[in-house]
Protein 1
Amino acid sequence: MARSYNGKILHVDLTNGEFRVEEPGEGFYRKYMGGSALAMHYLLKEIPPAADPLGPENVLVLALSVLTGAAISGQSRMTAAAKSPLTGAIGDSQGGGFFPAELKFAGFDAIVIKGKAEKPVYLWINDGRYELRDASHLWGAITGEAEATIKEELGDDKVEVLQIGPAGEAAVRFAGIFSMSNRANGRTGMGAVMGSKKLKAVAVRGKKRPKVADKAGLSQLAKWGVDNLDDSDIAGLAKYGTAETTGSNQTSGTLPTYNFNSGVFDHWESIDGTTMYDTVLRGAAEGKQDRIGRDTCYACTVRCKRVVEITKGPYQVDPHYGGPEYETTSTFGNYCAIDDLPAICKANEICNKYGMDTISCGATISWAFEAFNEGKLTLEDTDGLDLTWGNAESMVKLTEKIAKRDGFGDILAEGSERAARKIGRGTEAYLITFKGQEAPAHMPRVKRSLAIIYATNPFGADHQSHEHDPAIEKDFEYYTERLALLGFSEEQEPRSLSDEKIRFTVASQRMYSAMDSLNLCQFVYGPAWQLYGPADMVELVKTVTGWEDVSLDELQRVGERRLNMMRTFNAREGLDRKDDVLPQKLFKPLKGGVSDGWKLERDEIESALDKYFEFCGWDVKTGNPTRAKLEELDLGWVADQLGMDG
Ligand code: SF4
């Protein structure tokens, strides 16, 4: 039968160099659909409890979905998942580009990587064939150089390379995995896991296009996206990139500034998406940036990726390393009160060259800035770097020192929570971390459902794990039709944590969780403002797979299944509700702008957490899944494995 997946999972044991190809049946693909849920299946089965995240017993899964490689926008994405060296909990990250589609074309739906090689290696997958090759000569190379060398030695410029940089080799705890030297599976330290296995890269090339059940239907759906992009809510994001949202965050007082002490930044216009478009995108000087300053992922019409080129001044930037997202302009910018866009682009380039997550890196630096400005760190601690708010030069130097684990950078390479523990002196008060992971650039004191998601999310604070509050608050009237499909018909009060808001949080979290299992881009597909809505997503799955009876309920169930597996993984590691804590700073009032004085209240958060666990069907006291819930999701094997009571 024609199918959109290869039906092949490649298992690699790096300790002995052995390979195994598993061929699961259709039931497996229908149950997990791919990506993150599929990865969880292997992580729960293969990682022993209490495994060292940087030891050979940790398992790294790279997984695609049943949709990857189909010719439509927003499908060329991949999950990288393992136990996280940053949090000690489950680690999970999503990344896009061309590598995911190429891996599908090369004949596999996922790679399960175990053990540890004796010396650096890279995995070469070419049209269904696979081998490990020596990578000793690549160890220490920055991403652009390693990528070029691999392509040259394989003699094919069309090879796609997924790799770690020197930061992953050096176990920077927030090192990511990169393709194209600028697309990151950035969060939760997956690059450090890959580095601990001495796996420098995975190179892929393939010619086998996935079979699509209804080709004409897929073309029609894809064409609808192309025809409607300019009139959609993501037209601005396409043209100006994700940093286009800087202005709306400023207006709503949700732009984290001075390390989350304020929700507004006076100089926001210096670093927003429009300024980037007008000044530093490649081709801006000649007005050609739409053509050469925007990049894309395989088959995506949106072209939201930034390509920055700076050839003059103190911060010159090579376009090979892309350009910053909103999260990056925020963490290196407004978090640190820095309004120097070229400096932010330079920090982004360093992260992409050395292979680090820009969110955790920038947020860790911002924590150090606050500690310095509060007199808890001195020039002696910082190797002479003046971390006064707004000092762009020190920010750039510190980014490089972290990548190289040099001096003070070595302490920060452990992440802000471990750094605060090591330094002490009350610097814990400046942390904005959840389960040890630094928070992305969205404000839980204003968008209150974020407080619940940041606290409970199995892999730490994440801004792409549910639909933010405005969709069911001020923007509700625009999305009534789409939200009705999820069962929501009432607008909620701003900043409320009503039962209905929590129910919406849970339902939209399941939807986003399904998208991470289908490996869909969350700018293109989603429940509200995205190009395609929930009904289109169901149509897409039907069209590509031929599963005619698939429904939104089934997709939501896949999302729920993934979250239950993740939460159970954490329970096995000893985590529960006591670890779903919010940083103390969020209970203090914001200063300035429209959000001046807004803060979280502990009682309100605790009641909202009770409600959240209740809606999830989990034990309210522990926040953990029950056997009954796991069995309801056809995950009895997970409960059995953990020896859960009946
Ligand atoms: S919207 Fe942007 S990030 Fe998403 S698939 Fe398209 S180009 Fe890639």
Protein 2
Amino acid sequence: MTVFTEPISSSVSLFPYKGKRFGSWNLFTNSAGNFFVLEENNLNLLKNKNFLKERQNELLEKGFAYQIKGDLYDNSFKYKKKRRRVVQPKLEYLIVVPTLRCNLSCSYCQVSRANENASGFDWSEKDCELFLKYIRENGAQNIKIEIQGGEPTLRLDLVKFIIDGVSALCSNPTFVICTNLNEVSREFLQILENKRVSISTSIDGPLDLHDRQRTQGRFKAKRFLKNFLLLHQEIGLARISALPTITNPQEIIKIINFYIELGLTEISLRQVNFHGFARKSHRDESQDIKNWNKSYLDALDYIAKHNSLNQNKLIETNLALHLRRIFHLDAIGNVDFRSPNPSGLDYLVIDFDGKIYPSDEARMLARIGSIDFTIGSLSSGLDFETIAQFNAMQDNQKYSACNECAYQPFCGIDVIDDVSRYGSVDYPKLETHFCQTHMSLFDYIFLKIKERDFEALMNFSGHLTGRFEINPVFSGAYLD
Ligand code: SF4
């Protein structure tokens, strides 16, 4: 990839831009997130004064040039560039772990869960008190609380305490209970009568697959499915989300088909990650980037085909996130896929022992004794010195490979993943798992745009807007 900064002609100047060559065509982007594809095998074309003179109106229109400092084009560029990097200062997303105990022992468990009957792994009364104090002082009115574990339904009293306590302090809170659905009690169903509460569960695929990876007993797998169908009936699919953990990429299509069969409208295709127990039990699978990328992109084609032929559409959330990062100014992204990615602001994780982490992955690393990314605790508050040191690394503009990359304005940064896999934040970025998986998806998206792939573009539109139709946003992508 190449970075260009020169002014170009007497009448207009170019904003700094980056180019990426794809054989016979090029992609150009700039830090405002403006882009176009050009069917020319010449990355230096924008340096050609005659070409620029001829195409200056299009370059102004595409947000690549301005006439004078402070004109509409210049202001628009600066505004978009700034908006892309704004992070909310209030705590909007909080993961809490009121108990680490669990009634399953999945092969890839990421959190070194504690046994169901173990003691010392639940929030104490003091932790509960401090938690509400923390929310009172820091929580946004529209805070979203993800109640994780362990298995949080083992402590429904704490789940209820969190929901009632936060609802009394914030005007518009929402809650997600992450549960393995091993048990669904009457008390749990009563909690779910509150429409602000939804659930997230893990479905790894058809019963044999789910059983192999999670329940390790066909009886438990069947009970899970029965409970899933019960909740489907009681609260509706709109309040249920499900995630598979994929240990064998060859099984992706089978998993997708099962999600469609269950009537689910979203799926998040995730490779088994490199945390917790998975580090040992799925070491090779979690590191195999090439195989994963191929299977994942084939799966996106499969979903596009499904969506073009059927009324029951399926959204793949990772693709949706990347598309939003490209096409929406405010889509700052997830905590493991945004830049800058400051911790201690809008997103936190509070563990069973009151310790605070910047992300769930950071919590997992601490649990296995790999590296301590603690940034505070409920009792002592946030450690701003540690946070400042951590945040200094959490910006892709700090890394030379990213500064030369055409995808930088859309991409993110996740030094926790780099440290987890390579033991360092300085590992060459282009060789990281993070870079290679995200770059592969960006390449896929821009290739489909360049090819004007009708089926894929309809699918992209559906992922961005919910309407699977030809979207004019894609027709502006070319400098023909
Ligand atoms: S991580 Fe990779 S894809 Fe993302 S901006 Fe950096 S070099 Fe580009």
Protein 3
Amino acid sequence: MDAPLNHAEFRFYEELNDFLAPERRYRGFDYAFPGAPAIKDPIEALGVPHTEVDLILVDGESVPFGHRLRGGERVAVYPVFEAFDLTPVYRLRPRPLREPRFVLDVHLGRLAAYLRLLGFDTAYRNDYQDIEIAGIALHEQRIVLTRDIGLLKHNAISHGAFLRATQPMRQLREVLDRFQLEGMLQPFARCALCNGVVELVDKTGIRDEVPAKVYAQCEDFSRCTHCHRLFWPGGHYERMKQQFSSVGVQLP
Ligand SMILES: [Zn+2]
């Protein structure tokens, strides 16, 4: 005969409800489970990736992901919220990575280019496998950005974010807000195409590499130290500036 199931009451707060089945959103509900699982397991089984969770209260006490449920508890699960002062409680997120670096899922190519343009070290390929992304995140201490909830359930991933926006510029805004990057922008410090560091170059050395008209009109040239492409403020620059300013990012 099977052992009887244990029960706990769960309630999820704020945007964590987006991950739940509709009948479980914004209300307490009963969850039945065998044995004494670490609390991370039922949370992910209910659809919420651990990277989105910042605080778990069990009967009013904050607990880590490894806390074992035994039955009869009331569980409250809160998202990452930066604005509240929660210092006395047990924050689940490891301290923010000091110099935020990213690895992006295959469907986020435009966002990768935007983050690089703002100077953030951003690993991206359109043929990454999930397991590669998890490995890169672990070994290079990168934050995973994705719209795939399943990817964020990899145990190797400690820092990650599920992006709600589908439009790349809105995704950029979401990332800047979520990781509080506003003060860290270094526009044009990286190559949007390859993530290489971009450096200013002496104009006299590149005369043969650009059209004569551009050479005559332009003073500021820079080069990617990795793929060696040359950059200068061309005609598309104003349009790009407008796009970024539509989400509150002012380029110089
Ligand atoms: Zn490059």
Protein 4
Amino acid sequence: MTSPILLSRFDALLFDLDGVVYVGPDAVPHAAEAIRAARQAGVACGYITNNASRSAQAVADHLVDLGIEATAADVITSPQAAVSVLPDFVPAGSRVLVIGGAGIDDALVAGGYVPVHSRDDGPAAVMQGFSPDLTWRDLAEATFAVRSGLPWIATNPDLTFPAPGGIAPGNGALVRLVAETVGRGPDAVAGKPEPPLLRAAIARLESERPLIVGDRLDTDIAAGARIGIPSLLVLTGVSSLGELLGAPRGERPDHVGPDLRILAEEYPEVVATSQGVSCRRSWAGIVDGDLRVELGGDPWDGVRAACAAAWSAADAGDAVRVEGAHRILEKAVG
Ligand SMILES: [Mg+2]
């Protein structure tokens, strides 16, 4: 008896991009092939990005360069998600002060709003997103506008992002700067882990059974949990095996795999009993406060069992030492 492959349980896959599909300019190994296979199997593929400095078209062009068929319509950006929440604050057609890059202007125009760049143009709301060209004057303009009482929407909350010279301040850091100055945070944040970006993607793909696929527990997986949809964590990006074993409630993926090839594999059941947790031929449990694993077959089954055992002990309030199991698993899957 064969069970169906993982992707067949879903009608749409929502891919985070950096660390899942590409890292900087380069493809993540096996990603393009896995996405092509999913599309061939008739599963819709959408690409979601908190990055507010690139347009949907630029992202689609990048995907095509990597061998993934995509158009701008397949890409959902945080400025687009930010525009999707504007009706909660101001009527369609309103002027919106843009603090950020051209991607925000484009998303506003597409959504039926009027982007403006000065308070003199009478904006009804402020939208803040990342641009490397933002200056003190722009941030001051945002500050004055927010303090005057305008609703303030941030495209994404990322404090940092990897830049050629190292880890650089992201939009979240600049939003915090304004927040510190005005004494309050934004009225809405669109990007992960907040819900609007995922909701916009699900609406765009008209999906009833979506899967969010990401590399970060605190953004991708948390966003899925926030809106109650299943998630897959791949270990090709930011979050590590150690972080996965220690993931707090609300940041725990439903599925785990080394990379996107897992989408085309049978995904095993994880079964908890009073004796511990089994996953196919692997077992994990807590013995004298230590997480123990016994590996059999695919070592990722050991990871799946170990996560379930560690998480359930943490939820019961038990202190668990995971270091020994972590070393064994790291060696087995590395
Ligand atoms: Mg990522």
